[in-house]
Design goal:
The protein is an alpha+beta fold and 724 residues long. The protein is 19% helix and 31% strand. It has an eight-stranded mixed sheet with strand order 31-32-34-33-35-36-37-38, sandwiched between helices. The chain has a four-stranded antiparallel sheet with strand order 3-4-5-6, with no helix packed on it. Strands 7-8-9-10 form a four-stranded antiparallel sheet, with helices on one face.
């Protein structure tokens, strides 16, 4: 019976593929460019697509987008699942996040009402105080016709002012505004090129420090935009042209800052020192310098070096004369040490939290203690280390087992505010009070009927990969499913930057589960589930472990009867495009569907996109032979083979993406369409008013996910999703 079902599905898919192929999909002309990498010649057939300003390229991409929309519109269940997802999202009155509590009781937070498209910024006095709308992001769209998003917001220490960033069309290209919260009016003109913001207020509450990107000219290459950024001092109401540079590339003669570095300054109310933190691209370690706040901006400012890159520090917090450092040096799952700011001595630093089986993910400073969030086998924990006696550290009570998201704590106040979620519980926003020892819901996040469905089951498995390594695999589905190999299954993975795929639940995912769908998350190497060693085991030369782990998880789901190749979809976004792209090109027989989302597909050329130089520490550079070999191996575009039968593919991208250039998806789509010997569709889905997904509107996010679900169900042969 099981294989009879699969045969019927294949018959349906053949008829559907014939229908789609009768439509017109524009072919891309082949114009090879041959590059010589250390004696190896590699032809790039669609290099010209990297010029997104070229009229021919733009017309081809628009025609591809129109064709994709036409094909997706033929899927009968597409609108039904989209509308169900809208209904589920609106099942709670509002979605709240990014809570910031100040010492005087003022609370700042973001909220999106159920009928709104984007989050807005609110303020109130105390959790029970009257709510005040500060920044209405929809007003920007009314003026321009383009959706805008709130990129960041940082109130002054007393909450009188708030600096915030606004980005259009998902571009993340933020302009920085300053609002007087008493009047609700903006002060001065917005500051452009403030994508990262990184606002830290001066003690006077009338000025702040921020990061600003360099001003580029048309003759500069695209990847120059994130080079040579600078930290400036801005006084409220002043012209940004008069802002004083205080740190960055070429600013302090005695301190060398690399072009690819991102410098930031942090000034805590809990310390008289300013910290300058230097990130070298996306590398998972930082350099730190310190100076008294009073000396900032002065010609004779002296910065004390706290640590260098070789000290492998990844996080920092301060309290008085002490600096707390999160490090993975000789501690792959991280530890926290403490030393003096004025006279740092890392060799003799005191260990506050030693390395353990749990991975330390971060820390937050409060008046009473440092709070350390940890992940232990998929379960989040919060460790409290009192300032007055570190020997009395202990875990605080949590509302349930799952993931915890730290809020921005205020070091002038005791306790911590944090968010929590799990595979089957949306969770809320909670406060721990050290005086009572209790954790309570602060009441800002409203409840809804689908917050915690008791009919969802989350399973945890460990899968043996190609080299014997056991890879964690999370599997979420409705209770009572049959392991008959016929379940629609959506396998996700990422595997980069040491970022772990922690438990999460979103209301709209329930639409997938309701259709009998399984969601599986492969915790592949390259992520951070087991600390630095897990990350390094999927980076550069070891990157193949990332997609081989993913393949092993796919094979496990099939072997255990959860699904079969005809009902299995694989997906990865951004750097996860490497994962799904290489899994698909290495094992095209294993998946019915592949969905790369804003994916890195052409890694040999990734260094030429705007974010390219910053990502060299993670992936390598084609200018070094060893790195070139690794980049070529992870390049999906160059591993597409003529005549191979590839699965159905839906590549998605936003045209305003600053992190992964849209030509990555365009080139991959053109190559797959020309190469595949099968009759399964290869579609390029483009959004012209979105970017990397950050800043997308509610409808954009839900429509993209609904299109993915409908596309999968169509290709799986699910009857209600088959065109007439």
């Amino acid at each position: 019976m099981r294989w009879t079902k699969h045969l019927l599905c294949m018959v349906v898919l053949l008829s559907v593929s014939t229908l789609v192929s009768a439509q017109t999909q524009p072919a891309a002309p082949v114009r090879p460019v041959v590059d010589d990498y250390f004696g190896t010649e590699i032809a790039d057939p669609y290099r010209y697509m990297e010029d997104l300003e070229d009229q021919e390229v733009r017309e081809w991409m628009k025609a591809q987008a129109d064709y994709t929309e036409h094909v997706l519109s033929l899927i009968p269940g597409r609108d039904e699942i989209f509308n169900r997802m809208l209904e589920l999202d609106a099942s709670v009155p509002a979605k709240v996040g990014r809570v910031q509590r100040l010492a005087n009781g003022k609370v700042f937070y973001r909220k999106r009402l159920q009928d709104e498209e984007v989050s807005k910024l609110y303020m109130r006095d105390g959790f029970d105080g009257e709510e005040v709308l500060l920044v209405d992001t929809e007003e920007f769209e009314k003026e321009t016709g383009v959706p805008h998003a709130l990129s960041y917001s940082t109130p002054s220490r007393d909450g009188r002012y708030v600096a915030y960033g606004i980005s259009p069309g998902g571009s993340e290209d933020a302009s920085l505004y300053v609002m007087d919260t008493e009047t609700g009016e903006n002060i001065g003109e917005p500051i452009t090129r403030a994508q990262f913001g990184a606002i830290t207020w001066m003690p006077d509450g009338k000025s702040f420090i921020y990061n600003r990107l360099q001003e580029t000219t048309p003759d500069m290459p695209p990847n120059a935009i994130y080079l040579k950024s600078t930290v400036y001092w801005h006084k409220i109401g002043a012209d940004a042209a008069d802002d004083v540079p205080v740190f960055g590339f070429g600013i302090i003669p005695s301190i060398e800052i690399e072009e690819i570095a991102f410098p930031f300054i942090d000034i805590s109310p809990a310390s008289p020192y300013a910290l300058a933190v230097v990130f070298r691209g996306v590398e998972d370690k930082i350099r730190i310098y310190a100076t008294p706040v009073a000396s900032l901006g002065k010609p004779d400012v002296k910065w004390v070096n706290i640590c260098q890159m070789e000290d492998e520090i990844t996080g920092v917090a301060v309290s008085g004369e002490h600096i707390y450092l999160l490090t993975h040096k000789d501690a792959p799952r991280y530890k926290i040490i403490r030393t003096s700011i004025a006279e740092p001595d890392l060799g003799g630093a005191e260990t506050i939290v030693p390395e353990s089986e749990a991975v330390i993910q971060g820390m937050a400073m409060a008046d009473d203690a440092v709070y350390v969030n940890m992940m232990d086998g998929g379960i989040g924990k919060y460790l409290r280390i009192p300032h007055n006696d570190i020997s009395k550290g202990g875990f605080i009570p949590l509302p349930f087992e799952g993931t915890i998201f730290p809020s921005e704590s205020d070091p002038r106040l005791p306790g911590i505010i944090f968010g929590a979620t799990s595979w089957s519980d949306y969770g809320g926003i909670y406060q721990y009070d050290p005086d009572t020892g209790k954790t309570t819901d602060i009441g800002l996040q409203p409840k809804g009927p689908y917050d915690s469905p008791d009919y969802l089951v989350a399973e945890e498995a460990h899968v043996e990969s190609h080299d014997g390594t056991m890879v964690p695999l999370s599997i979420v589905h409705l209770e009572g499913i049959e392991l008959d190999g016929a379940n629609p299954t959506y396998l996700m993975g990422y595997g980069a930057y040491g970022i772990s795929m922690d438990p999460f639940y979103g209301h709209t995912l329930l639409a997938w589960y309701e259709k009998g769908g399984i969601l599986a998350i492969a915790h592949v190497r390259g992520g951070g589930e087991y600390g630095v060693e897990w990350h390094k085991a999927g980076q550069k030369a070891t990157k193949p472990n990332t997609w081989k782990d993913f393949i092993a998880c796919a094979e496990y789901l099939i072997a255990e009867g959860y699904t079969s190749p005809s009902r299995l979809a694989g997906s990865g976004g951004s750097a996860g495009g490497i994962l799904i792209g290489r899994a698909m090109t290495e094992r095209p027989d294993l998946f019915a569907v592949a969905i790369p989302q804003v994916g890195d597909m052409n890694m040999l050329r990734a260094e030429n996109q705007p974010s390219g130089p910053a990502n060299v520490p993670e992936f390598g550079t084609s200018r070094i032979e060893e790195d070139f070999k690794a980049l070529y191996e992870m390049d999906s575009y160059h591993h597409v083979e003529d005549g191979a039968a590839y699965p159905a593919v839906l590549l998605t991208h936003g045209m305003n993406d600053p992190r992964v250039a849209p030509w990555q998806s365009a080139k991959m789509a053109a190559r797959l369409q020309a190469a595949t010997s099968g009759d399964k569709p290869v579609l390029l889905r483009l959004e012209y008013e979105s970017g990397h997904g950050i800043g997308s509107t509610k409808s954009q996010r839900i429509r993209e996910r609904a299109d993915g679900f409908a596309f999968m169900m169509w290709q799986f042969g699910i009857p209600e999703f088959q065109p007439d």
